[in-house]
Amino acid sequence: MRRYLIIIVFLTLTIQCYSQKENRWLIKKENGNLGYIDSLGNEVFSGKFDMLNENYTCGLALFRKGSKYGYLDINGNIIFKTNKYWGQFSENLLPVEEKGRFYYLNIHGQKALELSKLEFPKGMQINQVYNFYSGLALVKLKDVFSEDLLYGFINKNGQWAIKPVFHHATSFMEGVSYVIKEKKSYFMNNRGELFTQLVDKNAGITQEGESDLFDHSEGITLIYPKDSVTYINRKGERICSRMFQRANEFSDGMAAIQLNDKWGFCDTTGNIVIQPQYYVRSNFREGLAPVSLEVKENGYAFNSYFIEGFIDKTGKTVIPFQPNVSFGGFKNGLTKGRRFILENKLYTGKYELFYMRKDGKKVWSEIVKQ
Asked: pLDDT tens string for the chain (370 positions)?
């Protein structure tokens, strides 16, 4: 049985984003409890949660117990509870919709910003409000009769900072929003200035579902022309001539790109600096990236398995490759890992969840059931 099937099942669980400011990492205990450790591997708290968010944002982590949601501080104290899922904080504010009313809560669970007096074009009403980024929050309006949409941005006083004149817009990423106005697409700064007109109507920029975010990082945007992927800069210029099967956003000056079903890395000039040869879609964080290689026992593909380790930006192995493991990226000097426990080459349903430093030493581990 090919062991890579075991690894693939868990890949989506291992590419995680960890808290940088609060120094907390999510753990799961053998008894099923969820909680956090600090950067030294000390358990801060754990409890019977049905869901506990991977990340702290603005000093709070979202949890669910039964039908109730709420937010914990970094020591596990409940700050406030809610009856429904409201998402995560950003810039100390949380967007909320309740019985057709839209407002923002502060980190104490108190109403901090009402939108009841916000004026908008006749026949329009608020359809959705989003998180604050760069001091501004995207607001989506819908016509009550035609269902036409308009987008604008409010400031933290609940007033229009950029009026709703766009037929599409995204939240600001690194001070840049992607907008469509009068059937033309642009990059816009947070002063409302359209600084780059993009060549095509939508420039190949896509979004998933109802997300307000787009794939923009380190000054570069992913675009998806003709079932492929490439990059443009803030001037709308392609930074490389190559087209890729899939690709990641830039992180730590590098981006994972896929060619011929294998993953490598390019730099911000579009040059491929680490040739595609790996099987894990990952990012560089703190100078290292987790990657996976296939090992064929006795040269036979049907009897192959995968090993995973960390490389630096030159492609040099820094943390040795191991079988039956899966890693996340480093944050604050720690990476989250899973070692899948096998018997007679078959997965037992148990794995070791652990956190590891860059020298390969584990600071916390626990054997848990899938």
From this structure: 334 333 333 333 333 333 344 689 999 999 999 999 999 999 999 999 999 999 899 999 999 999 999 999 999 999 999 999 999 999 999 999 998 899 999 999 999 999 988 999 999 999 999 999 999 999 999 999 998 999 999 999 999 999 999 999 999 999 999 999 999 999 999 999 999 999 876 678 988 777 899 999 999 999 998 889 999 999 999 999 899 999 999 999 999 999 999 999 999 999 999 999 999 899 999 999 999 999 987 766 567 889 999 999 999 999 999 999 999 999 999 999 999 999 988 899 999 999 999 999 999 999 999 8
Number of domains in the chain: 1
Task: Give the whole-angstrom CA distance, residue 86 versus residue 69.
Answer: 8
User: How far, in Å, CA of 284 to CA of 312, rounded?
Assistant: 8
Q: What is the CATH number of the domain that holds 353?
A: 2.140.10
CB 17 within 8 A of CB 7: no
Four-CA torsion 266, 267, 270, 276, nearest 10 degrees? -10
pTM of the model: 0.88
Distance CA 154, CA 92 (A): 15
Residue 269 domain boundaries: 4-369
